[in-house]
Write a structure and sequence with these properties.
By secondary structure, the chain is an all-alpha fold. The chain is built from 13 helices and 2 strands; from the N terminus they run αααααααβααβαααα. It has a two-stranded antiparallel ribbon with strand order 1-2. Helix 1 crosses helix 4, helix 2 crosses helix 4 and helix 7 packs across helix 13. The chain is globular, with a radius of gyration of 19 Å. Bound molecules: protoporphyrin IX containing FE and calcium ion (2 copies). One of its GO terms (molecular function) is metal ion binding.
Length: 296
């Protein structure tokens, strides 16, 4: 099992080393904080939090980076490489890439104005992975509320965890291809917001697919509860965002977070810890990778 003081003796400088590199990366590009937080989610939802998302393709397997949810989308791998190098300098061969993702996600949230919390460490790194697992296990932005609830439940996460974790969309950007159907076809969207987003995202698929828009139109670089205020105003960017406030079973939770930032923060922390507990490799399973991009 994971513990809070896992590297207390073996790598006492871990936290300051990671945080310093994350701060530099976010100072250079604010969006990087969002990208790093998302990497932890994409790792944990595919074979658990085992660093699988970081593996490059090899001759023996095709990894997760070219799966639909990640291709042209997941970013921050160079920053993870920098953090891993810095950590290897202070304690070589000790800290897993899976744990580095967990610390990095926690620090990114805090640096962008969100809460901080103690995390549990002791994960080991996967030696392999598969593209098809990533395609199957990461929820699509076209998901219905029931599909999202089912997927989260299968991982031991509740509807409350789903809503709280979706609050991560208070930061970062999405590509037109992922919100086109919502802004052109859905009716659960504020019409003037839809028009604004349509102006940056052509209706014809294949044109402007990579054009970006902020997931939170109000405060896209601050980790706050504005995402939930947007949902109450029918200004969610993704179909999978707005289904959380649609007259369904998640409405009351969204409403609560939209008026009470501290309840969002405390439930987000709980949910991040639960997500970080999804089937870690421990004991003699897996390994401590030397380079996060490949098995030793
Ligand atoms: C509920 C299911 C979820 C769905 C369907 C979903 C879907 C998406 C999509 C489609 C994007 C935009 C990607 C692109 O257009 O390239 C995105 C971005 C993002 N997601 Fe999620 N997401 C979900 C849950 C989460 C969770 C649980 C977290 C973290 C705890 C998270 C964090 C982020 C962040 C921070 C971004 C912005 C990344 C950046 O700007 O680089 N998402 N998500
Ligand atoms: Ca994984
Ligand atoms: Ca925000």
């Amino acid at each position: 099992t994971l513990t809070k003081d896992y590297y207390y003796n073996s790598c006492p400088k871990l936290y300051e080393t990671v945080k310093c590199t994350v701060e530099t990366a976010i100072a250079k590009e604010t969006r990087m904080g969002a990208s790093l937080l998302r990497l932890f989610f994409h790792d944990c939802f595919v074979n658990g939090c085992d660093g699988s998302v970081l593996l490059d393709d090899t001759s023996s397997f095709t990894g997760e980076k070219t799966a639909i949810p990640n291709k042209n989308s997941a970013r921050g791998f160079e920053v993870i490489d920098q953090i891993k190098s810095a950590v290897e300098e202070v304690c070589p061969g000790v800290v897993s890439c899976a744990d580095i993702l967990a610390v990095t996600a926690r620090d990114s949230v805090e640096i962008l104005g969100g809460p901080t919390w103690d995390i549990k460490l002791g994960r080991r790194d996967a030696r392999t992975t598969s593209k098809s697992a990533a395609n199957k296990d990461i929820p699509a932005p076209s998901s219905t509320l029931n599909q999202l609830i089912k997927r989260y439940n299968a991982l031991g996460l509740s509807t409350k965890d789903l809503v709280a974790l979706s609050g991560a969309h208070t930061i970062g950007q999405a590509r037109c291809t992922n919100f086109r159907a919502h802004i052109y076809n859905d009716t659960d969207i504020d019409t003037s917001f839809a028009r604004t987003r349509q102006s940056g995202c052509p209706k014809t698929s294949g044109s402007g697919d990579n054009n970006l828009a902020p997931l939170d139109l109000a405060t896209p670089t601050s980790f706050d509860n504005h995402y939930f205020k947007n949902l109450v105003d029918s200004k969610g960017l993704l179909h999978s965002d707005q289904v959380l406030f649609n007259g369904g079973s998640a409405d009351s939770i969204v409403h609560e977070y939209s008026t009470n930032p501290s309840s969002f923060f405390s439930d987000f922390i709980t949910a991040m810890i639960k997500m970080g507990d999804i089937s870690p490799l421990t004991g003699s399973n897996g390994e401590i990778r030397k380079n996060c991009r490949r098995a030793n």
